[in-house]
């Protein structure tokens, strides 16, 4: 499909608006064409007569109000053996598109058994890793809302953020590799989780150490996935503007504030993304998005 829009035939000046720009702000056709051009997977496509539901200034306008889709479904539609994610935690590991989808399927089945449902909030105290991408995609596939904090953040900083949202599950790493050396996180995350239980947290899931194989006698990701059944990976169909990720402001001018992002995000098949920080929507979209059959 070719995108069609008016062409500019003369150089722009201070009094002229390019036809392309005018077309993008005055016509809804551009956004319908983009939806089709990008091959967005959806159970209900957007309505041709209603692309933006305008609101007053203090409200968020709704984009594609009639459409229904799932963010994770659009990222996991590939099932081939091409590399989707390359990770490093002392040893470089590669994960294929098929392998990623299967790991998401197993974890999603397990969390559904444990009660995760649409609208539930899941957080992770975790490094920017394959594990975090899987947790984010699992949460998105079920219709939950995902948030994360970096492993080098202090106890007060993590609690300042997570106390603002009522969490159902928290995943936490107990050890990370920094500068080639393992760094223990167990004392910090134990204190965080103990405080979050007073704020409504229902379950904490520990991620075993990837460096030393260290285990603790608490609920961990391995035991959680053992409860998974053989159900197919299903994707909850949700509105385009449905909350998907909760991010946070830096907290430099006061307490850190929650910022909600919806499913209206994306990446192209050729994109490679590297980020040394907390896993966020773009990092979760590290998977090279390809909406055509392999």
TrEMBL record:
Q: Which SUPFAM superfamilies match?
A: Acetyl-CoA synthetase-like (SSF56801)
- Domain AMP-dependent synthetase/ligase: start-end pairs: 77-263
Q: Molecular function terms in GO for this entry?
A: acetoacetate-CoA ligase activity
Task: Write down the InterPro entries for this protein, in alphabetical order.
Answer: AMP-dep_synth/lig_dom, ANL_N_sf
* One family name in Pfam for this protein: AMP-binding
* Superkingdom of origin: Eukaryota
| Name listed for the protein in its UniProt record | Predicted protein
Source species, please?
Answer: Laccaria bicolor (strain S238N-H82 / ATCC MYA-4686) (Bicoloured deceiver)
